[in-house]
Structure to design on (269 residues):
């Protein structure tokens, strides 16, 4: 059937536009996010609810918003131990501007630091798709497969803690908020197997990966959600470094640096 002239014109005009977004519509004197005027959102919803609207396109139930708030709080800070915080503080000490220090810290997030949340969410979300009747059987299959590759299972174990205190608290809150679903159950089933086999426990990423997956977040948003929670801490560390420490301070003693390159050479004999 031939398309009407008006529809054709509309399609042609839209396809010629350079930016397409379903997040926020900006018109003179009017800003609507996911359909809600921002002046209605301001003062009426919490920050986690806003995160939900932005990332998922809809307002959460109250229990889901409370749960996301706890997840964001749990990501807040881990002292000066993480590479991102160290990077931000070293840059601050070098005299870099705040935005550069923050960007440097965030750029230090990689596979081995902060990357576990996304990898665990992917593991759980894909794991649930496996054709097994019992979650315990899926958990066992996942553990067997990863053990064969000699890789570590993301979301379990920790460099500093034998038992990451944040994980059981998050699971407890997920139960209280009625936010436990199949993904968190799968994480709990893996935890039981790994504890029996290796004595290691679920860490913050394992707990949050299950919870965020049960809240319906795509695993591709995992690191982003981690960053939302961690950003205030990175700002705070940069501020502390700039206001409390000597500029350009020594982070390592010269004795801690060991040169194992070539012996001294000369260009001319
Ligand atoms: C963080 C990590 C590197 C610590 O590893 P580690 O220093 O070897 O930890 P432990 O000494 O407590 O390990 C004890 C045993 O459990 C094993 N183990 C530790 N974490 C494991 C994991 N996630 N999957 C499988 N086995 C693991 C170790 O290989 C070791 O086995 P072994 O006794 O046979 O040698 C590791 O747990 C890991 O890579 N975890 C996954 C990534 C992750 O979730 N990171 C986020 C941390 S918040």
């Amino acid at each position: 059937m031939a398309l009407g002239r008006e529809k054709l014109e509309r399609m042609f005009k839209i396809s010629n536009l350079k930016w397409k977004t379903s997040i926020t519509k900006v018109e003179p004197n009017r800003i609507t996010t996911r359909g809600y005027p921002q002046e209605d959102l301001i003062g009426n919803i919490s920050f986690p609810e806003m995160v939900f609207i932005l990332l998922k396109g809809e307002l959460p139930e109250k229990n889901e918003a409370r749960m996301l708030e706890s997840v964001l709080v749990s990501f807040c800070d881990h002292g000066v131990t993480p590479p991102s915080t160290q990077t931000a503080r070293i840059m601050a000490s070098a005299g870099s501007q705040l935005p550069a220090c923050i960007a440097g810290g965030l750029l230090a997030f990689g596979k081995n630091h902060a990357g576990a949340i996304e990898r665990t969410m992917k593991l759980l979300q894909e794991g649930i798709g496996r054709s097994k009747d019992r979650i315990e059987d899926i958990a066992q299959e996942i553990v067997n497969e990863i053990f064969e590759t000699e890789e570590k299972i993301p979301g379990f174990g920790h460099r500093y803690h034998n038992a990451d205190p944040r994980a059981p608290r998050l699971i407890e809150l997920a139960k209280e908020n009625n936010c436990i679903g199949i993904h968190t159950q799968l994480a709990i089933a893996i935890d039981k197997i790994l504890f029996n086999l290796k004595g290691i426990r679920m860490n913050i990423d394992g707990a949050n990966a299950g919870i965020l997956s049960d809240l319906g977040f795509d695993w591709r948003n995992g690191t982003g959600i981690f960053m939302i929670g961690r950003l205030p801490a990175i700002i705070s560390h940069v501020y502390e470094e700039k206001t409390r420490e000597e500029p350009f301070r020594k982070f390592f003693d010269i004795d801690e640096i060991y040169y194992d390159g070539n012996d001294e050479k000369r260009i001319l004999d």
In short: The radius of gyration is 24 Å. DSSP finds twelve helices and three strands in the chain. The first strand starts at residue 24 and ends at 27.
